[in-house]
Amino acid sequence: MDSIVQFENVGLRYGTGPEALSDLSFTLFSGQFYFLTGPSGAGKSSLLRLLYLAQRPSRGMIRLFDSDLVTLSRDRMPGFRRRIGVVFQDFRLVPHLSAFDNIALPLRIAGMRDADLATPVREILDWVGLSARGDALPATLSGGEQQRVAIARAVITRPDILVADEPTGNVDPEMAVKLLRLFEALNRMGTTIIVATHDIHLMTRIKRAQMMRLEGGRLFDPTGALRYPPKPSDLRGWEEDKG
Ligand SMILES: Nc1ncnc2c1ncn2[C@@H]1O[C@H](COP(=O)(O)OP(=O)(O)OP(=O)(O)O)[C@@H](O)[C@H]1O
């Protein structure tokens, strides 16, 4: 199995505050499905921001796609970013653009002509079950529909890694499972998936997913080897994460 992300003794400090992340050492392997869990404030979003290159670590080494991020030249960053799709809990769609145009945005930014992007955007709208809603503005879509647009936008460039930060926090449980199925389908096509979530029931839905748990900025299971079904002792403390 090829490693796609490697952290070695990574720490992250915001300003002069205490470390939000400390001594993170782990490897993520290509094509795997990972859940990142932990109580509020444990550092999940911070870890994801390091993964999708919105943040640089304060110390330690991060290797991504076999390159050392600390020494990566600035002009190679955009190319790396394009290989990572990101989905947020609050969707972050552009309000004045239709579903179609939100999804087309990464392709337009990459310089694709309108004539060339119509087919892939239509295909992915169909894949997320929204082929009839391409012209709709985000405000006229339900939460689940908006999140499906956000997922489509994140994967339209066929990223190697999909990072999702509480992607099901604003949809009902039934829709949460449907969204998870989209992630699972992508994973089957080879995309490495990392989903931060508090939702323990969601995690039980992906049997082969691996668990990473943060507590106080440190990895609770540094090997990332926890798998479902977990031992009862592994579950201790997880229930209070909900909500
Ligand atoms: N931009 C920032 N500036 C200063 N401190 C920050 C910033 N972002 C996060 N922190 C701090 O870093 C720590 C980890 O926050 P983070 O948002 O990563 O946790 P989380 O596990 O994602 O929490 P939640 O589940 O509530 O979203 C917290 O103590 C938080 O206050």
Automatic annotation (TrEMBL):
GO annotation (BP), single: cell division
Listed GO MF terms: ATP binding
Ranges where the record places region Disordered: 223-243
Annotated keywords: ATP-binding, Cell cycle, Cell division, Cell membrane, Membrane, Nucleotide-binding, Transport
Membrane topology, from the record: Peripheral membrane protein
Biased composition, class Basic and acidic residues, residue ranges: 233-243
UniProt superkingdom: Bacteria
Domain named ABC transporter: residues: 5-240
SUPFAM superfamilies cross-referenced by the UniProt entry: P-loop containing nucleoside triphosphate hydrolases (SSF52540)
Subcellular location: Cell inner membrane; Cell membrane
Subunit structure, interactors included: Homodimer. Forms a membrane-associated complex with FtsX.
Function: Part of the ABC transporter FtsEX involved in cellular division. Important for assembly or stability of the septal ring.
UniProt family annotation: Belongs to the ABC transporter superfamily.
Protein's name according to its UniProt entry: Cell division ATP-binding protein FtsE
Organism: Blastomonas aquatica
Source species taxonomy: Bacteria, Pseudomonadati, Pseudomonadota, Alphaproteobacteria, Sphingomonadales
Gene this chain is encoded by: ftsE
